[in-house]
Structure formats: structure tokens, C-alpha cells
Amino acid sequence: MSKKSKIAAPRNAKKPPAQPETLETQDPPPTGADEPSSAAPEEAPEAARDVPVPSLSKPAPKNNYVLVILDSCRFDSFVAANTPRMKQLGALERRYSYAAWTAPSHYNLMTGLLPHTSPPHVYASEYYKQDFYKYSERLGIEGIKFRSFVPELWFPTYLRKQGYRTHARVSLPVISQFTNINHDFNSYRLMPHHNDMKAMLGDMFFTDDRPSFWLLNVGETHYPYALPDEPENEWPRISGVHGVFKRLDESIVDGEVVVSDEQFFDEAKMEQLRRRQIDSISYIDGVMEQLFDLVPKNTYITITADHGELFGEAGYFGHGPIMHEKVFEVPFLEGKLR
């Protein structure tokens, strides 16, 4: 990292567009992506939701909060990658996701429950208490109160009640602005390309009058683990849930689902895919330097994953309808840089 871009040095916050409280975005409709597309964006329904913000009651939050989700990022892939910038946030932890694929995991994350540590001999209620109280540090709120979390049990709603502006930039269409996860966000956008975290940073802004929450769902670490400059015709391709729904009607013949004759990945291909994910994580570490330079002082950042990935263990690949420890095992690190 150059002296010019030292993380320890404060950065001026990026100025927001006009009327940030009702920021509107014109986004592409879902394009298939688990089989990502480079199709040009088309007009979409309004992605912003203008929710009245109550006047702040004491104590006011002190921190912006950025939650970065490295989609499908397996814990030991993260360990094998070169990640010096991300590790500046704090100690790397092995944690476990509450779900095995993108959509349900993100819904769970938006209840405020981050990947867990799986402690033995502890009631879930006791773990939840400690887990939620950590938001006192993340948000910088002394004497934080959680009663307003109910009845919605929705983290963006709770943050709005605390005076936050809430924003999301996501990479995968299964959690696009057309889905129900887009609730109580000031702005919410599915990015035109599934593998371009840098483009998300160009959308980010912070204001001086109120803190901001940003959810960033990063797609480079999701299959096919493609970097932005990699030609699409070189990507390996299989469909996830979104792609299956797009093509399922054509796969039903005479009332039965036609089974694909595609051969399962062999050991050499699994290793190639594992290396691709590791390389994508190392690439993202470089992009994180730009994020760290962008965020203003008093910004707390959590980096984790929505679920893990399998590369041949017990005959599995990927994630989804799989019960295996590696599909739930994720990296977790967080902290403030300044």
C-alpha cells in the first residue's frame, strides 16, 4: 500500500447525490446469475424505499456500519488466500452460517444474526444476547436498546429507527431489489455484473448529518469465481436456483423433469475451481484497500460470508441442498480502521 493511501489516514467522505433520502436507482432485472450476464441495464421499478426517519433520541449512533458478504467464501479458501488488508480489521475467526445458500442466509443476516461461533453447553438465548449486544460496539451506541427491534425483527428497520440511512448493493439476482429482502432500505441495487465489487464502491456515499449502513454482497467469490477482466466465454458454468427457474419449463417433458447428462466435475476440475476461489479472494483483498480509503472516520466494517463451498468432499460440489460442515464454515473478521 502506498504512503498516499495509508489506511490509518482519514479520508473525506464521498458526497451524496441529490436527495439521498429518496435515492432512486435504475437497475437491470435479474439476468441469470448464478450464470452472470454482461447485458446492459434496463429500467427497473423504483428500488428506493422512502421510510420516515424518526428524530434521533439520545444516545445517537457514532459509527457508519459496512457489512461485506463474500458470497460462497469458504473459510479455508480465505486462509489460503493473500489477505493482508482485510486482516488489518481484526483477528480472523472461523464461524458458521445459519443457511447453506445465498437467499436464506441473507434474510437471516438481515435479522441481525451474523455467522455464529457454535459454542457448546450454552443456550441459544444466551448466545443471542451476547451476539446482539456486540452492536453496541459496531454502531457506536452506548446504552444501546433493543426493544425497538420488535415486532419487525428486521435489521434495516431497526437501523432506520436509530437514524441510519440504509443501502444495499448486491451481486446475485436471488437477492435483487425485486425480492422481499428489499425492505426498509433507502437504496437497493442489483449490480449490472455479478463480479465487480469496484463498481459498488463507485455507488457508495456517506453524509455528515446521519450515519449510513451499507450491505455489500460481493460476487467474485461465488461460482464461477470470475474476476472482472476475465472473458465470459472462459467461465465454467452451472445453474443455481435463479437459472433453474428460468429454464425449468423447458426441462419438463411429458410431465417429467429431464435429467442432465452433464458429467460431474472430476478431482482435477475441483482443484482448479478451488484455486479460482482462492485467487478471487486475493483479488478482493486489493479492492478492500479502495473501500478502506473511501470510508470516513468512525466506520465499523464486518467482513464475512453467507455460506461456504464444497470442492469434492464426500462427493459434493458447491452449496445449497447439502449437509456438510464445509458448506457452513465461513471466515469472519471485523473492526474499525480509524
How would you describe this structure to a colleague?
The protein is α/β, with parallel strands linked by helices and 338 residues long. The strands form three sheets. It has a seven-stranded mixed beta sheet, with helices on both faces. Strands 6-7 form a two-stranded antiparallel ribbon. Strands 9-10 form a two-stranded antiparallel sheet. The radius of gyration is 20 Å and the shape is globular.
Chain-wise SSE layout:
Layout: E1 64-70, H1 75-80, E2 93-96, H2 102-109, H3 124-133, H4 135-139, H5 155-161, E3 165-170, E4 187-190, H6 197-203, E5 212-218, H7 241-247, E6 252-253, E7 256-257, H8 267-294, E8 299-304, E9 310-311, E10 317-318, H9 325-328, E11 329-336
Parallel strand pairs: 1-5, 1-8, 3-4, 3-5
Antiparallel strand pairs: 2-11, 6-7, 8-11, 9-10
User: CATH H level: which superfamily?
Assistant: Alkaline Phosphatase, subunit A
Low-confidence stretches: 1-50, 239-248
> How many runs of DSSP E, i.e. beta strands?
11
Helix content: 10-25%
- Residues in β-strands, percent: 5-15%
Shape type = globular
How many helical elements? 9
Cα-atom radius of gyration? 20 Å
The computed structural class is alpha/beta
CATH fold naming: Alkaline Phosphatase, subunit A
